[in-house]
Specification:
The complex is a heteropentamer, with 2 copies of chain A, 2 copies of chain B and 1 copy of chain C. Chain B contains 10 helices and no strands. Chain B is mainly α. Chain C is globular. The chains are: A alpha/beta, B mainly alpha, C alpha/beta. Bound molecules: adenosine-5'-triphosphate (ATP) (2 copies), bicarbonate ion and magnesium ion (2 copies). Chains B, D: It comes from Komagataeibacter diospyri.
Chain lengths: ~280, ~250, ~325, ~250, ~280
């Protein structure tokens, strides 16, 4: 059953160290009667920008929470090897519904991850404000979370994760509630930061185009219980999402997400293999 | 849930309600609907109060009661809050104490009076003990419940940002998230402590309760009501002071 | 020396107020701290755990304290024949205004009639089990009138202040009370009638006493004699010159709520009851101890003499 | 917040805690660390209890107390809950009663004892009154607070789906959303009512409290503890029954 | 300042009755010191499918709540004239973050709007299940809201609104958290229902493409305080979003959302006018 459609023809960052390794992960909420995730094996290497795609309710958020260590898998092992550096967190997460602490102002929400890093109050303040500036909310720093719009809350969640400069950044539909322009600007920022810091990003999205713009590698979750159904390397930048190769790959992904049979790859571009 | 906007309407309505209450009360006594022995007329309260103030008994009773009140309140609240937070946050401790709590918690503060007399005598220490015990459980449960009710997602957020250890979780999640519940418990305790003050003082420890019992032994219902209202006043003062502090602490609730 | 004295709010404790008001205690180098209890039995709870050094209240609770191993000695009597049984409403119906000693038959008839008419037993307020009022009331029913207390009436053991309130408010049909409650009631409730005077209850009825805890402990020597002397002197003043004692009693018992003449009247009524010599109550206490043993309140009768220190009084009386 | 998974660990820990408590207690009395007059040895409780049961006094006291308890609890809880819900939901009523509540609420249940004696006498009615009053305020505030704390978004949802009127809002939002808070208040009241039972019975109404006072006036500390534990037991029974009902009602909280 | 770029050249349903009329709406959270919305005039006619676009935090959700009558505007008047019919609600709303009642099961959440319509329990049950089926969640009918994924909760919110068959349907980013396939299916359903019932839909989205697929008319909110900056009629179906006219219109909208000057319309297709 563990057919994973893979395409490693143009695998980009596969030479780095392994940052995340999942082995035979299974997750159940009811003591093993039904499983959300099952038999998930995954290796992510330093510097990779991986997008996670899959239908609604398949288990994408669950997968991220397992990697972050927030829920213990019912089966299998998770190993994380982020590189330690001063004044940053090894890993950080952007939650699907922001999850701000209602008793902290916007700025102090962003400062959350900076506390305990040995920074002075002023340094924390400056880094938080810089991150808020990045997401366009510097002038809302003193508001309470309840005074923000949905998209604004989501951006605060992004700023909170970016400001700790994590080696491993997990993002759960971080731009889902943003208009195209704000989203485009944040996508650009994210790519810029990733290029500069060479960190590792795992990015859940429901938007195939977004995945194709951002990611070096796209993995697809599908099924009940969900497993890895596809693992694609996306070509080097600059990319043309309208190029026929890209469109064909996108079409294959769409079908995998929909739970249809893989149509097979145009041999010139990729190969599907069983693992 | 349209709140009444004008800042004036509410106090006015409140005053109206009070006027209606006292008016009906006075009228029903004047018209003899209620036998005067059963209830003093509101108009008799002023003179009774003045006399009590002049004799110095009023101030003295307040001073005595406030002493027990404050000591019992502080001791009971601090211990209750801490124990509640810890039990809520540390499953092992919670488990160990669960049996003891089940046995001790239901024993009402007043039932400790015999032991309060035995262990501390009928003075400030005994009264403080009885007050502290009942305040303790209120704060314990408020803090415990508040910690248990914390949205587990918040622990996930804290853990994701490097605050996974117990002390970090305490600081970034448990204390701020449980603050509304803990403060609600403190506030309940503020009221409950007055109940226990009366209870302890009914046994003769000097203070408002003792004075009230003296008055009632003479059927001086006007004095009894004066002291009931005195307690209401003292409570209102402590409660208002508390709410000011609370507002500063919980500004984020808006 | 600091002396913590437990007392109950009745006229039998008045010597303490005089000692304090006249500064006799202070002048004798005693820092007297008065602790008010709402009945004798409450005071012995503090007594057994050493929270008070001296005790001025009914003598009978001391039997309980002694049975629980407390070392306590009665050094003086304060008042005798202080308790009376009073009634109101249906229970008082047809009685003359002036107390006339009721015969046992009359008492039995009265209680039986009440129960038949009202459909329930009369409710009588006393203090808790083991107190002088409770024991005397039961003694009166049983020994004087041949009634089973539990059958004849519903006896509620409550605080002194509460008993007075309950009687005034009509929450009970009768009560066994001491001064100043009796005078207060006489004034406020013309319909109240006496069922049994102090003498009717038991001639020479023992009441409030002065007792000292751990009398022979070394630190007691510093104040015992001086205290006793002051107490007896105050008792004498109360018996002879109530007017002079009134302000102190008013302060302590009335809390300023009682008119002066009520206090004076209460003191005057009690004047002849003030008897200091502890020897005068030994026999009566012995009889009541036997009664308590019979009723199951005490496990066994111990020699009553060992509860008393008659010598100290004898020395200062000379 | 890893909950202790195994359903066995918690009860075992609880039992361990109790064993430690009673063990230390017994030991410190046996070794004379605590004077025996101050505290009965746990081992003396059994015989004292048996004797009390044999005489029939135990059952009688329980029966008497339960009568006041139930009546006071039901009357106080129902009235308190209703008034609290209404005041929370109807700003006009809230405004009108705000003054009256401010004056009456702080007067502790026990302070009503003189009037309970005056109005209802030394029997069940008086005890019921005192109990009902203190339970009333707990339920009032729990219900009121729960209604005030309802997420205003929920009213928006209800209004958007045709439930904008007062009764519809009551049914679709106010009652279910305030249920956890209201039930927490009810539960607190279950405990608080025992406190008031003792208080009311101190004034001569027969029952556990009266019996306890009798025991303490005879220095029978073992009986006092027996009755303290009896109250703990009765509370535990009512509380367990209550929690079963609560679990059914609040299954959605998970 | 009230320049609204309008294009009524191909206005489709402008002949119907007015269902929503906003006149000079202003909204402030701080008693008039700052305004979120100001000088908003808007008329929506029966049968129109109107999309609302605008940058994050501009006031789109606020506008919907004003129309639904959930907040009273600080200035101006709102009038609603939905047509009354038996066994349906005149208006219903899909909230941006679902807002399910946590104490109701999924099915009973959907039944919320059906209560009080005089339906039997069975009828309510059937209509709710039909709606859940529509959004693909029939098998989750008995779960509690907390047991759903983000996208599943959002779909329950959609089902709850659809099942009451409102004359006026207000939707606040209803498909924001859904994958392309689920979203596509729901978009098709929505269009089908709209075509059949000829109800009126006001649809907030941050996705221009989604707006172009669904709406007959697109309005754009922008600025501080926000006002109507654009009002476009989209061509009749079938549409080709890649046609140059459509792309040009999309580009004008993008610029309006970004707060840039309107580049002016290609005269053959539209005209901009001041009102
Ligand atoms: N209670 C409040 N107090 C003050 N400002 C508020 C409050 N609620 C919302 N706002 C502000 O009102 C503005 C509009 O909010 P609204 O939720 O309508 O935006 P939106 O257009 O729906 O945004 P999004 O696309 O991010 O959901 C935002 O800037 C927000 O910060
Ligand atoms: N507490 C729970 N009990 C039972 N099932 C749960 C629980 N929490 C989540 N689920 C189920 O687990 C599955 C995966 O949920 P998850 O949130 O990971 O989905 P997702 O892929 O992130 O979906 P979406 O794109 O909608 O956010 C869903 O079907 C959901 O219903
Ligand atoms: O004096 C007594 O109450 O015994
Ligand atoms: Mg998700
Ligand atoms: Mg919004």
């Amino acid at each position: 059953m563990n057919t994973v459609v893979t395409d490693k023809a143009e695998m980009v960052a596969s030479t780095g160290d392994v940052v995340v390794r999942l082995e035979n992960i299974g997750l159940s909420h009811d003591h093993g009667r039904t499983f959300i995730l099952r038999h998930v094996d995954l290796e992510i290497r330093r510097g990779e920008f991986v997008a996670v795609l899959g239908p609604s309710g398949v288990g994408k958020s669950t997968l991220l929470r397992v990697i972050m260590g927030l829920i213990r898998p019912s089966e299998g092992t998770v190993s994380l090897h982020p590189s330690p550096t001063a004044a940053h967190r090894p890993a950080a997460m952007v939650f699907q519904d922001a999850k701000l602490m209602p008793w902290r102002s916007v700025r102090r929400n962003v400062e959350l991850g900076l506390e305990g890093l040995g920074l002075t109050r002023l340094q924390r303040h400056e880094r938080a404000m810089a991150a808020l500036d990045l997401v366009g909310l510097a002038d809302m720093a003193d508001r309470w979370p309840r005074q923000l719009s949905g998209g604004q809350r989501q951006r605060v969640g992004v700023a909170r994760a970016l400001t700790v400069e994590p080696d491993l950044l997990l993002m759960d539909e971080p731009f889902g509630a943003l208009d195209a322009i704000t989203r485009g600007a944040l996508q650009d920022e994210l790519l810029r930061i990733h290029a500069r810091r060479q960190g590792t990003v795992l990015f859940v999205t429901h938007d195939l185009d977004e995945a194709l713009v951002l990611a070096d590698r796209i993995i697809i979750l599908e099924g009940h219980p969900a497993g890895l159904r596809g693992d694609f390397a996306v070509g080097a930048r600059p990319r043309d999402n309208t190029a026929p190769g890209m469109r064909a790959m996108a079409e294959r992904m769409r079908r995998l997400i929909a739970g249809e049979e893989d149509p097979g790859a145009d041999a010139a571009y990729w190969q599907a293999s069983e693992i | 849930m349209t709140p009444i906007r004008s800042i004036w309407i509410r106090p006015l309505l409140g005053a109206l309600g009070l006027i209606v209450l006292f008016g009906t009360w006075e009228t029903s006594i004047r018209l003899g609907w209620v036998p005067s022995g059963l209830l003093p007329a509101p108009s008799s309260l002023g003179p009774a109060w003045l006399e009590e103030v002049r004799s110095g008994a009023w101030i003295q009773a307040i001073r005595d009661s406030l002493t027990h009140y404050m000591m019992g309140l502080v001791i009971g609240s601090v211990l209750g809050m801490l124990t509640g937070l810890l039990c809520g946050a540390v499953p092992l401790l919670d488990g160990l104490l669960s049996g003891v709590v089940r046995v001790l918690r239901p024993i009402p503060g007043l039932a400790w009076v015999p032991f309060a007399i035995l262990w501390f005598g009928l003075d400030t220490a005994g009264a403080t003990f009885v007050i502290a015990i009942s305040v303790f459980w209120i704060n314990f449960y408020a803090a415990y419940g508040a910690v248990q009710a914390i949205d587990p997602d918040l622990y996930e957020v804290a853990a994701s940002f490097g605050h996974g250890g117990f002390r970090a979780r305490l600081r970034t999640v448990i204390i701020p998230a449980s603050a509304p519940g803990v403060l609600a418990g403190l506030r309940t305790g503020l009221g409950q402590a007055w109940m226990s003050v009366v209870a302890a003082e009914l046994f003769g420890v000097p203070g408002i309760g003792a004075r009230m019992m003296q008055a009632s032994s003479l059927l001086a219902t006007d004095l009894v009501v004066v002291y009931m209202l005195t307690m209401a006043l003292l409570y209102a003062l402590t409660d208002t002071a508390f709410m000011l502090v609370r507002k500063r602490l919980l500004g984020w609730q808006g | 020396a600091t002396v913590r004295v437990g007392y109950i709010p009745v006229i039998g404790s008045a010597p303490l107020f005089v000692m304090q008001g006249k500064n006799w205690a202070r002048d004798a180098g005693i820092d007297m701290q008065l602790v008010r209890f709402q009945s004798g039995p409450q005071a012995i709870q503090a007594l057994v755990s050493g929270k008070i050094d001296a005790y001025v209240a009914g003598v009978l609770p001391l039997l309980q304290a002694r049975a629980h191993g407390a070392d306590v000695k009665v050094v003086a009597s304060a008042a005798t024949e202080e308790l009376e049984v009073v009634s109101r409403g249906a229970l008082a119906e047809g009685l003359p205004e002036q107390p006339a000693g009721l015969s046992a038959d009359e008492v039995r008839q009265r209680f039986a009639d009440f129960t038949t008419k009202a459909g329930h037993k009369p409710k009588i307020a006393a203090q808790p089990l083991g107190s002088v009022p409770d024991t005397l009331l039961r003694y009166w029913f049983k020994v004087r009138n041949g009634l089973d207390p539990a059958q004849a009436a519903d006896i509620v053991g409550i605080d002194i202040d509460a008993a007075q309130q309950a009687f005034l408010a009509g929450a009970v049909d009768g009560a066994i009370l001491r001064e100043p409650a009796l005078t207060i009631i006489r004034h406020r409730m013309p319909g109240m009638r006496v069922l049994a005077s102090g003498h009717d209850l038991m001639p020479g009825q023992p009441g409030s006493v002065l007792a000292i805890v751990n009398e022979n402990a070394p630190d007691r020597a510093a104040w015992k004699t001086a205290f006793l002397t002051g107490f007896v002197k105050a008792t004498h003043l109360l018996a002879t010159d109530p007017e002079q004692a009134e302000p102190y009693v008013q302060q302590a018992l009335g809390g300023g709520m009682l008119p002066r003449d009520i206090i004076i009247e209460a003191l005057k009524v009690s004047a002849h009851d003030y008897v200091s010599d502890p020897a005068s109550i030994v026999d009566a206490v012995s009889r009541l101890q036997d009664f308590e043993v019979q009723s199951g309140l005490l496990r066994k009768a111990e020699p009553v003499a060992s509860l008393f220190d008659l010598e100290s009084y004898r020395q200062i009386a000379q």
